[in-house]
Amino acid sequence: MLSRRTLIASSSLASISAMLPGCTSWRSDSSNTDRSRLAKTRVMVIGAGMSGLAAAKALKDTGYSVFVVEARNRIGGRIWTDQFQGGFIDLGASWIHGEHDNPLAALAAAHGVKTVVTDDNAYPAMFDASGLAISHVDQARLYELLKQVRKTAYGKRSDPSFAGKSVGFACIEALRQLTSSRTISPAEAIGVRHLLTTEVEGAYATDLDTLSLAHWGAGKWFEGGDMLLPTGFGQLTDALAKGLDIRRSTRVEHLFHHPGRIVAQMGDGLLLSAEKAIVTLPLGVLKAGTTKFTPPLPATKSDAIARLGVGTFNKVYFGFKSCFWPPSSTWIQHAGNAPTSWPMFFNLHHYTGAPVLAAFNVGAFAKDLEMKDDAAIVADGMAVLRQIGSKNGWRVTEPTNVAITRWSRDVVSRGSYVHVPVGASVLDLDEVGAPVGDSLYFAGEATSSQHFMTTHAAYLSGLRAAQRLANDDGIT
Ligand SMILES: Cc1cc2nc3c(=O)[nH]c(=O)nc-3n(C[C@H](O)[C@H](O)[C@H](O)COP(=O)(O)OP(=O)(O)OC[C@H]3O[C@@H](n4cnc5c(N)ncnc54)[C@H](O)[C@@H]3O)c2cc1C
Q: In terms of domains, do 325 and 400 share one?
């Protein structure tokens, strides 16, 4: 996910409790009598991503008997740190979005995890479709035009003639007006379209045409810069997981839920039971219906699941022997004629010193790219770097290491993160997060209209589910 500067409408939040609407305030330091009662209540948490681990830790700290079942042989879910060229890369989330009041910033600080605020306001090294550099003066004009386009399009959210339209429709309409009034040249129009990809499609992981205009900018965001974790985001999930009972390689295929009795059935027939459960299955998995619920989930929830969308955001890490690109630019951007084709490369070298570039692709282009084999993907991305290099005197070399993600083909993720498509509502997220009775609770990045898409959304949703469960048990 990219910088939050792209997400219009932001508001500052003061405290964690204010971030958990609909719950009675709750302390995890329950009394001794409560603790012995709670120790007899077994809670199954399905999924060991950020939301599941946050929920499991909060409940364990309160005194519940908790275990986590996780389909993969690793924890973290869409947080996935791997080793690469002697350092670390994140194949899922990279940034804590918004450093002020963000509970994950506090978690990182508490565990001594190194963070660096990335400079997203500096000009990128930007190149046009033929590979020629776009000067800072020309970029300033493009960013100014982008501002106008976004403002015009954003202003149409409540215009009845734009009802049921997409963000793409409104932006392209605003861009067309600028072009027909000759305010903008055809080359500038390509540049602005490119910025719509890096600034909007990159943030939402989906094409502009799929995003609901009416719900554009919904949700709350933390103020301040975005924090990169150069030694890996996985340190945060590792910290939460300490001391938890986690059953890896355990994939729930069928969940039977009745008041006070939950039974999960795995593919190999293994049955696990508990009194209560917190489900953190990714929205993509819920949409695919690969985990059955008996009785079926309420129609209000399954309809909301069907309406919401899951986009594709993929990374290709290219490791080289040495850095041949501008070493101190945070981003290298390619304003090609096909706007979503290899639009941006994040320069890890600037933050870690390692000669590594991370290409980010999003939306339909990224999903199609997943179908190609590794060699074809690498060749495709390197062609862009070579074209830019040939016009700018770079000595482009072959990569020595690559790492490629395919989040949409990953059957226990089925996409990168949620967005609100045309025809859906941001309130659908609350429906996905609504408990079913007082034994089945839901958490995950796609379960709240207040915070969604992000790691902090996942974290807060896990705390919210734990809090609801404890509230229903009379723990306040
Ligand atoms: C490429 C990419 C980049 C991103 N960048 C950022 C970023 O920079 N900043 C940010 O804040 N967010 C970012 N995000 C989003 C962020 O990673 C997610 O919002 C967050 O990690 C989701 O956490 P979760 O707990 O809701 O889901 P998950 O992490 O997906 O956890 C759910 C878990 O359930 C498991 N599971 C699935 N099916 C089953 C089953 N049947 N039985 C048992 N277990 C099952 C999964 O394996 C997974 O471990 C990015 C995501 C991607 C993919």
A: yes
